[in-house]
Amino acid sequence: MAAQCCCCKAPGAEAAPARPPPEPPPALDVASASSAQLFRLRHLQLGLELRPEARELAGCLVLELCALRPAPRALVLDAHPALRLHSAAFRRAPAAAAAEPPCAFAFAAAEPGPAPPPPLPAFPEAPGAEPACCPLAFRVDPFTDYGSSLTVTLPPELQAHQPFQVILRYTSTDAPAIWWLDPELTYGNAKPFVFTQGHSVCNRSFFPCFDTPAVKCTYSAVVKAPSGVQVLMSATQSTYVEEEGVYRFHMEHPVPAYLVALVAGDLQPADIGPRSRVWAEPCLLPTATSKLSGAVEQWLSAAERLYGPYMWGRYDIVFLPPSFPIVAMENPCLTFIISSILESDEFLVIDVIHEVAHSWFGNAVTNATWEEMWLSEGLATYAQRRITTETYGAAFTCLETAFRLDALHRQMKLLGEDSPVSKLQVKLEPGVNPSHLMNLFTYEKGYCFVYYLSQLCGDPQRFDDFLRAYVEKYKFTSVVAQDLLDSFLSFFPELKEQSVDCRAGLEFERWLNATGPPLAEPDLSQGSSLTRPVEALFQLWTAEPLDQAAASASAIDISKWRTFQTALFLDRLLDGSPLPQEVVMSLSKCYSSLLDSMNAEIRIRWLQIVVRNDYYPDLHRVRRFLESQVRPPAQAPPPTAPPSPPLSPHRLGIQENKMSRMYTIPLYEDLCTGALKSFALEVFYQTQGRLHPNLRRTIQQILSQGLGPGAEPSVEQASAGVDSEVDADTPALLLGDEPPSSAISLRDVNVSA
């Protein structure tokens, strides 16, 4: 028989503590307010109810803990102003972690009137456990602009290593981690959609937690959703209990808080391999299936040959609407990826392989602090390129690497070589959001350091063996850079004897702490068959006389190029913008119609050239792109090899188009830094109804730059004849939205986390 927790009934549960708890010792992670170093987190359980009509999540969190020293006076968790805590309670737990099955959760019936309370936990009877809960006092204090601290007073008699549970019931609204989408913002226009995005420090608005990558634990969840809505989580086990109308999930391996992820909507599955399936809205499912069928298993098998067994059971992929704020996220067992990328086959291949690589580097072995994100991203990028080399050959890998390193040097020119964010070990100052440290240095400078280590040992296969041993040693834990480097020198004692870590100019410490570009870059000569034509064509377009150069350039058929070749060529032209008007005119005559038929990664770059050069004859293409992108792409054969040439993006007939952040923001940033701001205002007012509120507010902030302090774009600023139905009550930028940067376009940081 289950005993229901009575914590919700205790009077005065929201009162301030009778005695103020002491300040916790300095946090090991400056981005976390928690007292994680004083406790061992054994497991967490979530009871969640999704309320899309109210854009509210009602939750009950059960934390299973042990104190590492006697009589801790308080437990401090990371929280957020979006969380409203209803109650806190304490319960003694059995000594053995496996002695008690997961608790059940009771969900209140929906009735007219006020919103029902959060779920109630119901604990099974177990030896050594107490069925009842006693209420705890708590308080919430400001911490940073991205979170709060939640202090919960603990019973004074608590002993070291004594298992106990803290039960927190809460509701969350307007949370940066939880993205609610009305049906109109989905492809099918049929059902509401919600997803979470926890990286880096957003999940403290999803549930109170130790929101630091240094802390990992297993978790389980019970989720109630509206009828007909499919719920998925980043878990190794999932079931739907029809008689209860709830989904049950369990993650059997320890993960940090930021990798607990949820998505719910009109999603349907299709198997694409023996341990993989894709989930997508019904109108997208055929496309997603055709592009990935068989390929994911090929990539997983290649990764296993390199780095050891895949340890997460299933590898599924869910395609999210274009409101997803990044390209992809490596949530264990369930990669989240933006559906817009389906249109660009080579980018889809690279992004999914990168997330596959995170299964070893980032998910299994995690950076212990956000100051060393390169330990996840640099190693995952290296592993991604080893997988692509094994699968598609060195030339394609070198082309993709050249494309990314080109973007890295572009970012370096914009930031300056002394920029502190160009370090691999970035100093995170208190109050700074760790998400602001996510940049191309994290990926590409980190990759260059890992590549340099592989060259020191002289054999990529021997370095693969080292990485396999590194993963085996540290799997399901969090590490610092010294762990990696000590393991490297222990695995290769001959290199340690040679003091390779102290080579002049290439010292490991300098790699980690020097600003500026990588100290060494990889040899990409194996990709010259693909990169040399790009260089040659770019040189033609910058040569004199123009007529002769244009004639020679027009003889080169770029329709047969790979997507990365064309993107690299256009990026070079962007770097040289503004170009002479006669050059832009000739480029348009030669390429505009052709590029307009290619995928969005190509089109966005051409349109940025149009905007940065104020080329009015092609401005209608910019308008059409912003008004009509991005519809679902057509089916294509699975990528047994990287597609070449780029596939023409014939789209399915979905009436309502959706706006993608990854393709929208770069154009608005460029439009607003030049003479085309009025054009940007006009397009915005015509399309704002199809924007997610977060994206709409970001664009409003871009448009408001230069309008004076506190100014927001008004209807009168748009051109005559523009739809004037603007929401006068549009709230300010949501906490968690990042201000746009006019210096660095999102095309330069096409982030797959």
Structure in words:
The chain is an alpha+beta fold and 753 residues long. 32% of the residues lie in helices and 20% in strands. It contains 19 helices and 25 strands. An eight-stranded mixed beta sheet has the order 8-5-11-3-2-14-17-16, with no helix packed on it. A five-stranded mixed beta sheet has the order 19-20-21-23-22. A four-stranded antiparallel beta sheet has the order 12-13-18-15, with no helix packed on it. A hairpin with a 4-residue loop joins strand 2 and strand 3. It starts with a strand and ends in a 49-residue tail after the last helix. Residues 1-27, 629-634, 643-657 and 713-751 have low confidence and may be disordered.
Strand content: 15-25%
Main sheet record: 8 strands, mixed
Rg estimate, integer Å: 26 Å
Alpha-beta classification: alpha+beta
What's the helix count? 19
Q: How helix-rich are the residues, as a percent range?
A: 25-40%
Indicate the mean pLDDT.
87
- Low-confidence regions: 1-27, 629-634, 643-657, 713-751
Number-wise, the strands total 25
Shape: globular
Largest sheet strand order: 8-5-11-3-2-14-17-16
Cα distance spanning the termini: 44 Å
Furnish the topology, listing elements before pairings.
Elements: E1 2-4, E2 39-51, E3 56-67, E4 74-79, E5 83-92, E6 104-106, E7 120-124, E8 134-135, E9 138-144, E10 147-153, E11 163-173, E12 178-181, E13 193-196, E14 217-224, E15 230-233, E16 237-241, E17 246-255, E18 262-265, E19 268-273, E20 276-280, H1 285-292, H2 295-307, E21 316-320, E22 328-329, E23 334-338, H3 345-358, E24 365-367, H4 374-392, H5 394-415, H6 440-456, H7 460-474, E25 477-479, H8 481-491, H9 493-497, H10 508-513, H11 528-541, H12 546-554, H13 563-575, H14 581-596, H15 600-612, H16 619-628, H17 661-672, H18 677-687, H19 693-704
Parallel strand pairs: 2-14, 20-21, 21-23, 24-25
Antiparallel strand pairs: 1-7, 2-3, 3-11, 4-10, 5-8, 5-11, 6-7, 9-10, 12-13, 13-18, 14-17, 15-18, 16-17, 19-20, 22-23
Helix pairs in contact: 2-3, 2-4, 3-4, 4-5, 4-6, 5-6, 5-11, 5-13, 11-13, 13-15, 14-15, 15-16, 15-17, 17-19
